[in-house]
Amino acid sequence: MITIFNEHHALHHGVELNDGVVMTCWESPSRAELVLERVRAADLGNVIPAVAHDEAAYARVHGDAYLRHLVTAWPDWCASGFTNPALPLVWPIHALRGDREPRHIEGRLGYFAMDAGCSIAENTWQAVRGSADTALTGAAQVLAGAASAFALCRPPGHHAGRNYMGGYCYLNNAAIAAQALRDGGAARVAALDVDFHHGNGTQDVFYDRGDVFFASLHGDPRVSYPYFLGYEDERGAGPGLDCTANFPLQPGTTWETYAVALQDACTRIRSFGAEALVVSLGVDTFVGDPISSFALQSEDYLRMGAMIARLDLPTLFVFEGGYAVGEIGVNVVNTLLGFESR
Ligand code: Q9C
Ligand code: ZN
What we know:
Shape: globular
Strand order of the largest sheet: 4-1-5-10-9-6-7-8
Order of helices and strands: EEEHEHHHHEHEHEEHEHEH
Bound molecules: N-{4-[(3-aminopropyl)amino]butyl}acetamide, zinc ion
């Protein structure tokens, strides 16, 4: 399996609120480097650089005003006299006006964000677009006939919606890749999200569409981030009704329980008639993850990969979360090796 990698990912290491204090994010450059190291050690296959894409490819998934915000946030933040990483501090929740984009950068940051997990600094945009380019390069590999590919994206993408960032995610790499597969000729595409956290952004992008199926296995939103999406009764809308499937799972979930839900998700994807598959591959389901609560073991990822392979679809793996850096390489590469063992 070919791996796509963009070295500019390292230009970005954000800050987030942790225990009431601004700290560097769990989502760190070392994550991608450790996965790459394991890809090489396991001889998974060639590693190729991401091909730069035009912003038009991102605009297939994201709104123009949001993309403009991503490009101008840092210069506008500096022009307002600020000097530290940009973070939002006010959000247009419920009864407040969500229909007006403020002009001031301080207001705009909240307008286009779901949380304070996505800081913006001088080189953030370069890393973010490089990550989307990594996914797009992977999609191109699959469209060219590769049975599978691994987009080693960083920063991750599945929490980013059409018009907002959140949870370390700015552009939705998996959604952009799924759309590229559609645009490249696949009539029906499935996005399977196995990150511990619900893929709220991917669900947002495809919720009312009948051509892209979205399935997510994740920590129950009653007790797990992102808290405000990912319930079982979210099934899609309009032409997309029953093209979204959510599998909320409880803290402590082991492979035994997880496998049942994953099999269900795969059955749904098979009956949908997908011609290509994008897997949002987060390994924060690992028992040792510092910010999540499932209990998968490293060997379970071999089984996960093998189960996904049984769908027998051209498959693009897109890297998402996973914060147990000691085991992150083994867990990711085990999934890919399990897939290849089919
Ligand atoms: N203090 C992904 O896995 N914060 N994003 C959790 C930590 C947000 C996770 C609380 C976690 C976002 C791509
Ligand atoms: Zn996650």
